[in-house]
Amino acid sequence: MLTYHRKPVCLSLISTDLPFWSVVETAGTLYQKDTDRFHLLLTAPPLISCEVGSSPAPEDTIRSKQSHAYAPSSPRVLWLEISPYRVIMTMQGNDQVSYRHFWEQGVYGVSRYWLPTESLQPHNPIRLRNFTKTLLLNGHHLPEHLRVEYELWGEKVQLGSYILNLEIKH
After folding, report:
1. In this structure, what DSSP letter does residue 63 have?
2. Residues forming beta bridges with residue 78, ordered by sequence position
3. Straight-line distance from the first to the last Cα atom of the chain, in angstroms, rounded to the nearest whole number
4. I want to staple 28 with a disulfide (CB 3.0 to 4.6 A). Which of 2, 9, 129, 150 is the partner?
5. Does the predicted model carry a pTM greater than 0.85?
6. How many CA atoms lie within 13 A of 52 on its CB side?
7. pLDDT level of residue 59 (50, 70, 90 thresholds)
8. Rounded-to-integer distance, Cα 43 and Cα 75, Å
9. What residue ranges do the domains of the chain occupy?
10. What is the dihedral of CA 137, 139, 143, 146, to 10 degrees?
11. How far apart are the C-alpha atoms of 87 and 125, rounded to whole Å?
């Protein structure tokens, strides 16, 4: 039986060895698929993208620098499929980047990234592997806290260690 709940959500992604972190606080819709399977759908604020414009005309300025325009991209839709055994997170609806991660404790999952159509390979995703060290899901009847600790790998090179932390407030 499908039931849903609208809840405040805090989703953070932190690198433990690189200067990278991202936090999204928003409302999410939690769908209960089975007793221990849930889908969480949320809209994240748009990213601010930097677009490089044309160079100014020589008569306008002595130096020739490119101008930068900052424009917000479209909102990002995040969809998480959550169970005590695995998590799948998909981000779509962004003109810049889309991705899909698969995490299961003790398993090398796949992370795929789709770049904008201007890239050299517009239809082929970049495929990376992630090794899930820890997957913890807490909550009574409904999930309240999810923590995924994983390493991201490209071929034989480790691209960092990360912690995905999800808090669903009741």
Report:
1. S
2. 42, 91
3. 21
4. 9
5. no
6. 3
7. very low
8. 7
9. 3-46+73-168
10. -30
11. 20
Rounded to whole angstroms, the Cα distance separating 34 from 139 reads 15
Domain 3-46+73-168: give its CATH code: 2.40.128.20
pLDDT at 66 over 70: no
Whole-angstrom Cα Rg for the chain: 19
d(CA 40, CA 109): 20
Q: Which helix (H) or strand (E) holds 23?
A: strand 21-32
Of 137, 160, 162, 164, the residue nearest 148 (C-alpha): 164
pLDDT tens, residue by residue, 95-127? 677 899 999 999 999 999 887 766 555 567 899
Is there a contact between 38 and 1 (Cβ–Cβ < 8 Å)?
no
Tokens of 71: 């424009």
Question: Which residues are 66's β-sheet partners?
Answer: none
Asked whether the beta carbons of 24 and 41 are under 8 A apart, the reply is no
